[in-house]
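Before the break, one more example. Copy the sequence into your notebook; we will annotate it together after we see the structure.
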Amino acid sequence: MKKIILLLVLLVSAIAVNAATYRVKYDVQNQRSTNFTVSVGYDRLTINQTGYSLRSMGTITSSGITFDSYAYGSGSNGMFCVSTTSISIKKDWLTTLSGYVIMIDNKAYLADKIN
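Here is what the structure looks like once it is written out:
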């Protein structure tokens, strides 16, 4: 009985650890500030308070950056990727932006991880 309870606690902990919330702060394509949240859970993606089902597709490495990739939604599937490490981008000689790269349906954003 103790083993089953321990296994359930570990399973719930693994699912909770896998959840992350990001505050999107910069739209890379339009080169302007933006503000919305993205929450990634075990099987659920929430973009600005709209929820979608989520399926993990694995990892992608491009230009030395590793991304976790996902398909979301039902019917017409969307694409969602988030970098596994934070990066820094030099916008101009005075401004350097840092954060996690998030791609939602071929649009790139820079975000801060808030949990």
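The longest strand covers residues 50-62. Confidence is low (pLDDT under 50) at residues 13-17. Try to locate both features in your own notes.
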